[in-house]
Amino acid sequence: MNPIIEKEWQSRTNRTDDDTSSKLIQEGGYISPDPYLWEDVLVSIVLKKPVLLKGPSGAGKTKLAQTVSNYFNQPMQSVNCSVDLDAESLLGFKTIISKDGETMIEFVEGPVVQAMKKGHILYIDEINMARPETLPILHSVLDHRRMLTNPFTGEVIHAHDDFTVISAINEGYVGTSPMNEALKNRFVSFSVPYLTGEQLKNVLKEAHPNASGQLVETILHIGNDLKKQVMNGLLSDEAASVRSLLDAMALAEHMPMQRAIQYAIAEKLDDKIERRLVMELVDTWVK
């Protein structure tokens, strides 16, 4: 384990034992698809760099953020972006309350303000689905200043030393738009690919420990074939989602494989030709 990560981990968790690697990664459920991605993300976080996770739906971006949260024993505030996201959704809003018989205006702090003050992780999911004009309010939060002047209260907020920002995007999906360069340049960026091979097998077995070995192997074969077709450009990224494979496996323990794959994967694809291709791949493994 990188010394800077170990030092920060011990500081935040008040632990002094030597178990700072694989066991703690498993506590959050994320398995790194290569030998260095997990540690490189942690190094960036320890150095107070906002992290941007890029990858297809179901690749494990949210699971990675949750694992960082568990690793540092650090709560996480989440923002789910959409075209309706506004400054109040990020920073908070004013409301009228009654206290001691008097009517007062109180400010309810949003996830950004809470995370900055309390030293939590701020997880911004699908950041490229937000309207570009909404996010510049975060520029001073994401750069070296790590501060914010709340436009609703006038309060100047300086981030807690442990404050961390992790964002995630699905590139090229419907409803997304390219990130503003000024925003993108405030992040260090990591590609998060799908799991394959033994790593994917371990995830399937851990999620469904009572599943038969034959079922696990069949799902693995189907998953590998789906990924090949995604790489060949014949299927959408979501067809090879690990999340969808896990759903299919759960269903397949209680119904025929063809129906499980149809419900968990094929029916979620918009293109009729892609749906047919998925089912044809299943038929090569299930007689």
Write structural notes for this entry.
The chain is an alpha/beta fold. It folds into 2 domains: 3-191, P-loop containing nucleotide triphosphate hydrolases (Rossmann fold, 3-Layer(aba) Sandwich); 197-285. 43% of the residues lie in helices and 16% in strands. The chain contains 13 helices and 9 strands. A 5-stranded parallel β-sheet has the order 2-5-8-1-9. A hairpin with a 2-residue loop joins strand 3 and strand 4. The longest helix is centred in the last third of the chain and has 19 residues, at 213-231.
Task: For the structure shown, list the relevant keywords.
CbbQ/NirQ/NorQ/GpvN; two-stranded antiparallel sheet; Rossmann fold; AAA+_ATPase; AAA family ATPase; single chain; 287 residues; P-loop_NTPase; alpha/beta; 5-stranded parallel β-sheet; 2 domains
What would you say about this model in short?
Residues 47-198 form the AAA+ ATPase domain. By secondary structure, the chain is of the alpha/beta class.
Q: What's the CATH C level of the largest domain?
A: Alpha Beta
Q: Averaged pLDDT, please?
A: 87
Major sheet: arrangement of strands: 2-5-8-1-9
Biggest sheet character: 5 strands, parallel
Low-confidence segments: 18-27
Number of helical regions: 13
Strands, count: 9
Family: Belongs to the CbbQ/NirQ/NorQ/GpvN family.
Pfam families: AAA_5 (PF07728)
Protein name: AAA family ATPase
InterPro entries: AAA+_ATPase, ATPase_dyneun-rel_AAA, CbbQ/NirQ/NorQ/GpvN, ClpA/B, P-loop_NTPase
